[in-house]
Design a protein that fits this description.
By secondary structure, the chain is α/β, with parallel strands linked by helices. It has 7 helices and 8 strands. The protein has a 4-stranded antiparallel beta sheet. Strands 3-8 form a two-stranded parallel ribbon. The chain binds adenosine-5'-triphosphate and magnesium ion. One of its GO terms (molecular function) is ATP binding.
């Protein structure tokens, strides 16, 4: 089965005050793959994701997303990505629906169909018109994921997506991610689940 590469991380390093926080990291991710970062606290997982998203500068190396360098062609590279780093950005005084509208308005045209679709995907239909301040943590996580999916990204980057979820929420989220990855149909998930190890330096 043909694999198509969505991300190439090449010799990626982050140096802060002369110290390597991330050192010469190399990996590729194919479409439809689910990849997890495993490493102890402070080993550089969040920093790596932030570099992949252009949220922090890259000291050495590069990240190529869908053929575009995040360093030299950030705008095009970011078109393929949806992300949540640490906690989703949500307005508590707005409803879930209005949060999605607001977010979509910032990034392009409002498309009510795509909003309805992501709400269905994460299973928030019943509470989408309630204010976010009334949501449980798990509902907020799901809304964050819905938001990250709005522009049908080829690559979804989630940092600690199961934070604060109860066991059933965790398995629901896992099912959702598998379902999303399967939609790519390029590779079978069973063959491709893998983990990128990043050892503490
Ligand atoms: N802006 C910064 N200035 C100095 N050091 C930083 C900065 N950002 C991160 N670090 C350091 O970089 C290292 C990696 O942090 P990072 O947040 O990437 O780790 P992590 O693998 O995501 O950890 P966790 O599992 O706790 O989320 C840590 O030692 C942290 O203290
Ligand atoms: Mg982290």
């Amino acid at each position: 089965m043909e694999k198509s590469v969505i991300v190439e991380v090449k010799n990626l390093s982050k140096i802060i005050n002369g110290n390597y926080i991330v050192k010469k990291l190399n990996f590729t991710i194919n479409r439809g793959e689910i990849v997890g970062f495993l490493g102890e606290n402070g080993s550089g997982k969040t920093t790596t994701m932030k570099m992949m998203l252009g949220l922090t500068s890259i000291s050495q190396g590069d990240v190529i997303i869908n053929g575009y360098s995040i360093k030299s062609n950030k705008k095009k590279a970011l078109k393929s990505i949806g992300a949540i780093i640490e906690t989703p950005e949500l307005y508590k005084f707005l409803s879930g629906y209005d949060n999605l509208m607001y977010f979509q308005r910032m990034s392009g045209r409002i498309n009510r169909e795509s909003i309805a679709k992501v709400v269905r995907m994460v299973g928030l239909e019943n509470v989408i018109n309630d204010k976010v301040k009334t949501y449980s943590l798990g509902m907020r996580q799901k809304l964050g994921i819905a938001q990250s999916l709005l522009n049908s990204p080829a690559l979804l980057i989630l940092d600690e997506p199961t934070n604060g979820l109860d066991p059933s929420g965790m398995s629901e989220l896992k099912e959702l991610l598998i379902k999303l990855a399967k939609k790519e149909k390029k590779v079978r998930i069973g063959d491709s689940e893998r983990i990128v190890y990043h050892e503490r330096l």
